[in-house]
Amino acid sequence: MSTPKTPLPGLLVLSILSARWDDVWPGLLHELEARFGPAGHVSDLFPFDQTGYYDKELGTPIVRRLLAFDALRPLDELAGIKLLTNALETAHAGQRGRLFNLDPGFLTLERLVLATGKNFSHRIYLGSGIWADLTLIWQRRGWVDFPWTFPDYAGEDMKSRLTKLRQLYKTKLNNQKD
User: Which Pfam families match (predicted)?
Assistant: First the structure.
């Protein structure tokens, strides 16, 4: 018999896509920090060019920024966080649609799980219309993707960035033990 156990908290990671950074930044960062606490990592902007899926709605060229927040959070908060980020997208949307796309997820030592409002065969329902997408797993000192992993997350640039965030997460876990 397995014994239920509360997992270690995760590192809240947020991917932000936008073609209008001058219009949304740094105000969006302040709003996110008001909801999730200080950001311990704010990446530089880097290209999002693996797909044209968001081009019509967000405009072009779309660039991405990754955030990771200082406070580690319980993993069962993921659905609520996705609902909150959806509300932020809607609150800032213009007549032509969203100004940005927010994709929250939890990074742990073992995996990266993103939240989504779209069902698919490999996704697990969390509640409130939100699913968990197992995007990457950590195995033998590196990230392993799946056939369903979004191309941008399967790329070496993103995996390198996530490896640095995983090290940040490990440091936070070790500091909690002290």
Answer: DUF4416
Residue 104 and residue 82 in contact, taking contact as beta carbons nearer than 8 Å: yes
**What is the spatial distance between Cα 10 and Cα 75, in angstroms, rounded to a whole number?**
6
The one-character DSSP state at 91 is: H
Check: pTM over 0.85? Answer yes or no: yes
Distance CA 83, CA 128 (A): 8
3-state secondary structure of 159: helix
State residue 16 phi and psi, 5-degree precision. Answer: -120, 125
Angle separating helix axes 78-92 and 27-36, nearest 10 degrees = 150
Mean pLDDT of 71-78: 98
* 98 phi and psi angles, rounded to 5 deg: -70, 150
Backbone angles phi, psi at 104, to 5 degrees: -85, 155
Q: How many residues does the chain have?
A: 178
DSSP percent split of the chain into helix, strand, coil, nearest 5: 35, 30, 35
